[in-house]
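Researcher: For the record, we're logging two predictions in this thread. I'll number them. Prediction 1 follows.
Model: Prediction 1, sequence and structure:
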Amino acid sequence: GIGENYESVDIIEYHGDVFAEHWGEYDCFVGLMASGIAMRKTAPLLDSKWDDPAIVVIDEALTWAIPITGGHHGANQVAHDLSQLGAVPAMTTASEAAGKQGVESKAKALDSHVVNGNSTVATNLAVLNDELGPVARLDGPRAVLVGGDVTVLKRNANDGIVLGTGTVSGVKKSQVLDAWQAALEDLDLGFEDVEFVATATRKGDEEGLYEAAREIDAGVVLFEKGTLEGFEGPTPSRSAELIGWPGIAEASAIAGGRDHDLAREKERFDDAVTVAVGR
C-alpha cells in the first residue's frame, strides 16, 4: 500500500477540534470529509505555507483526492500517491496543473530547501511560462546578490552523486532499482550516497522510474532538452538521430552533478534502463 512511502500513518477519529488538537504533530492531514469542513476548521490555524502541514481531502468513494493547502509542500505528492488507490488527484497549483515542476518541487527533488520563500511567486510564474530555465549551481565560498524574483535553494547535504537515467516506455520499478544498484556497486557506493535522480522532461510520466526513486527516498529532477544539449556526454548515442535528444543518461548526470562530470559513463541494463553517474 501507499503507507510504505511514509515514515508513519496514524488514523484519528474526527471531532470538531481534531485539527487544532494535532496541529504541528503531522506533516500532512488526509481528511475523509467535505473540503468545506477542512477549510473552516483549519483556516484559523494557518500561519505560513512554509511551516503549516499539508491538507488533502478525499470522499468516501475515493473518487477525488483534493489538496487544500500545501500543494507544493507535500499535498500534491500525497494526492498523487492516493491515485494508486483509484482517486483522481485534483491538483490546482498552477505549475502542477500545467504538468510542470514548480520551484518548491524542484527544491525537494534536489534535496534542498527554499531560503527566500516570497520569491517563489515570480519564479513559479516563470515556470508556468517556460521562462525559468535550469537551476544554476554556485559553489563557494562566494557572496551572491540577488533580486526579489530570484529563488535561492540551499542544499540539505554537501555531497552525493546523481543518477542520470534513461528508460524504455513502461519500465518497471524493479528494473530501475536493479540497474541503479549495479551502477552504484561498481563505484562502491549505495543508495544512501544518491543526492537525486536526473532524467529528461520527456520521461516525466514514467511511473516505474518515480516508484524506484521513492523506494530509495530520492527526488527526480527533469531537465529540458535545451539544457541537456549543453551537457552531452562522451559516449555516442543514437538519441539525437532517432528522437532529436542528446543521450539522456549521461547528459542529465553531467547537468545535475555538482562538478558537471561523470563518475561512471552510461551502461544499459536489462535492455530497459540506461544509467550514468554524475558528480
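Researcher: Logged. Prediction 2.
Model: Prediction 2, sequence and structure:
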Amino acid sequence: MRIGFIGAGRVGYTLGKYLSLKGLDISGYFSRHSEHAADAAEFTDTRYFESIVDLINESDAVFITVSDNAIGQIFDDIKCYPEINGKIVCHTSGALSSEIFRDSPYQVYGYSVHPMYAVSDKYTSYKSFSNAFITIEGSPEHLEEMIEIFSSSGLKTGTISSDSKSKYHAASVVASNLICGIYGFGKRLLMDCGMNSQMAETALCGLFRDNAVGITEKGVVSQLTGPLERNDTNTIRKHLDVLESEDRNLYRMCSMEVLKIAKEKNKETDYKEMEDILKGGDC
C-alpha cells in the first residue's frame, strides 16, 4: 500500500518518517504551502507533489494531516475528483470521526487514525513514536488492513466506534493536556511557599517522573499512595484549610477521582468520612 500525505505539519512529518523507516511505501506530500511539502519530502526521502490530484493518483491511502478545522474543507476539495474513487482516506484527529468522509459521490473508505501520543516536534518525535498507541475507526472493508499497517510497524493498536470519538478524545486530553494543568497547579502552590519558578520545577520533576513511570509499569491502583489512599482525614483537612476557594474546589474534584482509585485498592477501608470532607460537608 502506498501512503500519501496532504498536509505537512508535525503529525505528517512524524508518521511519514516513522512508517518509511519501517519499510512502508510513502508516495510523498502535498501542501498548500509548497515549501512545507518540499521540506517534508526531503526529510522523509519521498516525493513532493505540486498537484493534489497527482498525489491521490500515486497513493492507495491518503492521510489528511491538517488541523481539525481544515479536514472537512480539504475533503470537500477532493471528494468529487474521480481519482478518489476506491481510495482509503484517513485523518489523524482525536476528536473527529470517520463520518466526515461520508459525503462523496465516489466510493471512499474513510478512517480516523489517531496516535495517542504528544507529537511535539516535527523533526524528532518519530524517534520515540514507537511509544504511541494508534486508535482506529472507520469503514469495515479495510479495517483489518489498516490495523495491520500499524501493528506490523511495532505499534500497539485498538479500535473504537465512531460515536465514541468525543469521549475518547476527552480521555486523551485528561491524561495528557490536563496533566499539564495539574502540574502547573502544584508548581504554583510551591511558589506560594516562597520557591521561585525554577526551584519549584526542580522539586517536582523527580516526583512527577517517577509517579508517571510507576503508573505505566504497575498500573494506577498499585501506584497510588499519599494521605487520601491511607485515609488520613486530618491531613486532607489541613490541605483544604490553606487553599483559596478556587484552588480548594480543584483539589476536591481531583481528589474525588483519586478516592475512586483508593476504594479499588483498599476495598476493606471505610472512606465515608473522607468522602464527606471532599464533598464539602466537613472541613
